[in-house]
Amino acid sequence: MSTSHDISQTVAELMNEIRTLAAEAEKALGHSVTEHSEEALDALRARLEAAQERLASLYEGAKEKVAAGAKRADRTVRDHPYEALAITLGVGVLVGVLLGRRTKE
Asked: pLDDT per residue over 45-59, tens digit each?
């Protein structure tokens, strides 16, 4: 099971790879089209497709985790409605006090 740090690191790596791909694509497009640049463009396309697949995989994983978390939270609130209401009230009062102090200064 991946931690949020691992996922954020993977996303950061993927974003860096996409930025690098974009920079290389701009550089390749700036030069005239030759057989060598065509091979380079094919390699860039392959890398871009791999990055897109990784991004889609990360998105699906994140979507599943969010849905599971929402279901778990819903189940907890349904199992313990009064406790959930008390916690919500407490958090609301705390936020109200903190915001009230902030506006008076």
From this structure: 788 888 888 888 888
